[in-house]
Structure to design on (574 residues):
């Protein structure tokens, strides 16, 4: 989003009156920002901090921090394989989504005509479908004796690997649900690249690949980082898709921690897994915030 | 110019383009069309290409007391979450856009944190806090969990909107003797309205479609429509889930229709690239 800095105004703070005005403006600004900030602290900062402290001090009798809960969970082979499974499924989903969305965004940026116009509408459709519905729709589409299976049967194919209730189903549904996000973010970045830069490169004899590699790709780095990080966090922290479309074991971490919390009633283990998820995606989350910050500054 | 003789064959290039388009269309529309067919299916036996049509499952779904309860819960909680966040966020967005105060940039960025955490981990952490505060399985808890998703939209989209408005107009109004409040309500707000509407719609959909957090916090007595879907998908015949899916999609469809005039690609990108 092109969030521009406010128009420059004469610097306040020269005269005593100016200083008082600046002080009043600052107080008013903070006052207006305070209510949503308190909600944010209550809903995000406090729970996250609380979770970290709680899981590091599981036994009130023991003083200081102890990684006991983490050691115990990581000692479980099932939890370890869930973590590996989550990371692998996330990376594959991000790679496939990105691999589909970059060409699509490029096509939509440069192509003209009816097909492009149609495509521009088509790819946004999953945005307006709640993830629960998307998962269910994907099941009816991919399940054994579902539509794909019927079409393949009619074509004479009777044996094929199962497409749902396993990692394949999770990846396909994640790609379906996140494609529009990725295309929109990448597309907004591509839109911001001036046509004259691209024409200029081609005028001096750069081919398509060269133009892409030395003009388009480097100018679109920040949106690319935003798309990649956001995709990673969304898939990594998902519950609905792996819960409905995934298999029984191994499961993604989101499903495992929810089961620990609501089915097995083992809250401290569930929160420990939540903090592990925070830790694994912390760097990605930081890169996301930094990239959005950079894009915002770039637009100023 | 082109990377090889291959692409020079115009017809082949077109065919590949069309093939890719059709594959993408089948991938995106296929599951939705299947779902829609199921919603009007009495039964659908393998390997028939089309189901046997019937409306009997609609009557079944609409007569189900749990379903109507879930519809009511959704219709009550999502608007409240949206309204509350609009109430507190729009003035804050104005401050972010127009006023100078210490820490402005860092505070604005801090609202991105809802996106920077893996959601399910956040919900599990919130749940443990809610246990202590007796907010589990309460209406307030459900509204709060929906606000995790609405704050971001209601801060960032309006901030961008307010910043996009030329200050000259406001200054002219002030010069003509209008007070700050009058200037805001008569000049700034009307110009900002389309952006604010888009923010409200995004926030509403985020609240209305929230499932995983509400499942954790609202179970067993505060079940919204998306949470109900989990049960319907897992333990009812296919057409029941399909009928309910169509019902659950209605707000999104209405959103598309209402928002069409505001939904230039820029706004969509603004909302979803957060």
């Amino acid at each position: 989003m092109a969030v521009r800095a406010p128009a420059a105004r004469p610097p306040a703070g020269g005269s005593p009156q100016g200083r008082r005005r600046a002080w009043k403006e600052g107080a008013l600004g903070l006052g207006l920002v305070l209510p949503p900030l308190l909600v944010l602290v209550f809903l995000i900062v406090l729970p996250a901090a609380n979770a970290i402290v709680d899981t590091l001090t599981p036994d009130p009798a023991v003083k200081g921090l102890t990684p006991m809960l983490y050691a115990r969970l990581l000692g479980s082979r099932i939890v370890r394989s869930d973590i590996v499974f989550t990371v692998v499924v996330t990376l594959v989903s991000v790679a496939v989504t990105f691999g589909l969305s970059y060409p699509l965004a490029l096509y939509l940026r440069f192509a003209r005509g009816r097909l492009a116009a149609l495509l521009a509408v088509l790819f946004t459709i999953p945005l307006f479908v709640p993830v629960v519905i998307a998962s269910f729709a994907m099941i009816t589409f991919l399940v054994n004796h579902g539509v794909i299976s019927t079409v393949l049967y009619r074509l004479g194919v009777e044996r094929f690997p199962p497409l749902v209730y396993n990692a394949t189903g999770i990846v396909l549904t994640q790609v379906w649900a996140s494609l529009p996000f990725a295309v929109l973010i990448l597309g907004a970045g591509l839109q911001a690249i001036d046509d004259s830069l691209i024409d200029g490169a081609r005028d001096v004899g750069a081919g398509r690949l060269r133009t892409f590699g030395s003009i388009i790709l480097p100018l679109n780095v920040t949106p690319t980082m935003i798309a990649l990080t956001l995709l990673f966090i969304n898939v990594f922290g998902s519950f609905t898709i792996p819960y409905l479309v995934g298999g029984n074991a191994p499961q993604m971490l989101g499903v495992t921690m929810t089961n620990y919390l609501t089915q097995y009633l083992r809250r401290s283990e569930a929160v420990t897994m939540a903090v592990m998820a925070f830790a694994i995606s912390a760097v990605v989350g930081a890169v996301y915030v930094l990239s959005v910050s950079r894009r915002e500054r770039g637009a100023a | 110019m082109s990377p090889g003789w291959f692409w020079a064959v115009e017809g082949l290039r077109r065919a590949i383009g069309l093939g890719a388009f059709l594959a993408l269309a089948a991938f995106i529309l296929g599951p939705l069309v299947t779902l829609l067919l199921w919603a009007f299916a009495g039964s659908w036996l393998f390997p028939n290409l089309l189901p046997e049509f019937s409306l009997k499952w609609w009557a079944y779904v609409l007569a189900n007391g749990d379903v109507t309860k879930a519809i009511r819960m959704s219709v009550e909680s999502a608007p409240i979450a949206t309204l509350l966040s609009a109430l507190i966020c729009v003035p804050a967005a104005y401050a972010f856009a127009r006023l100078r105060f210490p820490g402005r940039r860092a505070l604005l960025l801090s609202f991105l944190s809802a996106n920077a955490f893996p959601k399910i981990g956040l919900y599990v952490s919130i749940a443990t806090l809610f246990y202590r505060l007796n907010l589990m399985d309460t209406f307030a808890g459900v509204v709060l969990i929906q606000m995790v998703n609405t704050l971001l939209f209601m801060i960032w989209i309006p901030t961008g909107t307010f910043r996009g408005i030329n200050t000259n107009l406001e200054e002219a109004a002030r010069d003509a003797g209008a007070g700050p409040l009058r200037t805001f309500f008569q000049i700034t707000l009307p110009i900002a309205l389309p952006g604010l509407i888009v923010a409200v719609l995004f926030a509403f959909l985020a609240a209305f479609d929230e499932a995983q957090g509400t499942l954790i916090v609202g179970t067993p007595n505060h079940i919204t429509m998306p949470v109900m879907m989990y049960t319907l998908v897992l333990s009812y015949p296919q057409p029941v889930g399909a009928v309910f899916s169509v019902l659950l999609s209605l707000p999104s469809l209405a959103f598309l229709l209402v928002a069409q005039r505001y939904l230039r690609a820029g706004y969509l990108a603004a909302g979803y690239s957060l």
